[in-house]
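Cross-check.
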Amino acid sequence: MFLSLEFPGGDKGISLFVRDLKGEDDFRPQELSFTRFDSDRCKANAAINECNEVLGVLKTRGATWKAFTMLFNQFSWAGTTGWEYWSDDYTLVFQHALLVAEELGLPLHVHSNTMDMAIEASAAAKIDFGYEAATKLANPRQDPAIVYLNRDILQGRYYRLSNVALPPSMPKAPRICRNTAIAA
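Predicted model, tokenized:
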């Protein structure tokens, strides 16, 4: 799976994508994604929702609210799930994306159109990280979206965050998805 934070363009706000989901050959968007509990899609969507709740406790200082009340699964096609934040609190967005990465055991990739935001957000949240150019997906799903993703990676449009050090004030990932292996 390829986890990325980016501004997709058009009228869409900053979004978190999980691409190259396995087991999607018979994906039907009209069916509920949580009916296949062992699928990459179910794990990714569950991680995004659970981390929203865990991070909400930090934001609301102990109350049980979500960090983002406006977080929508706006992108759903075979091999891809994507969630749009209706928020300009980029520090909280960045914290959420990093928590999802920790939960899924995946590196977070940041698109070049989002890197300045990530650097500013990390300073505000006291998060340290390094970064390097992302590498092309090996043996990806064969669909046009992944072909374009690999093209953008080869053109240097994505960075892979490394050595991420979250501050002690950040909650830990809920670990709901870690009891089953996820192919990275």
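Strands lie at 2-6, 15-19, 71-77, 80-85, 108-111, 128-133, 158-165. The CA atoms of residues 89 and 121 lie 9 Å apart. Passed to J.P. for a second look.
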